[in-house]
Amino acid sequence: MIPIFILAGSIVLTATLDDTAVAHSFAALLPLEVSLSDYHGIEKVADLPRRLKTGSAPDSYAASRGDITLYAPWGNLAIFYRDFPSAPGLIRLGALDAPTDVRLEALMGRVRFERTL
């Protein structure tokens, strides 16, 4: 498990990345700043600077609010703010640590991911 911060302006969220090869591949990019945009009123997405190693990741995943995922076919990061049914190519990286009163759907623009100490 890899604890991280997600920083968006004055918002600080804590999350934990899973102990999987693909999550470790994402953690190797940290600290990382990306630009989040909304995708279909379900998730926030961002391009990553390089493809992640997906290795033996499951073929599909059903996302829940607060999940941090990779959509392998496009190689982009996605943070879900609504539940989503199982989708081929969706791989869980981790999740927010606790329910938050932050409106995840309001997260936009530059966001920084970094490891906690």
UniProtKB/TrEMBL annotation:
Pfam families: Cyclophil_like2. SUPFAM superfamilies: Cyclophilin-like. Residues 9-109 form the Cyclophilin-like domain. Gene3D superfamilies: 2.40.100.20. It comes from the Bacteria. This is Cyclophilin-like domain-containing protein. It comes from Pseudooceanicola albus.
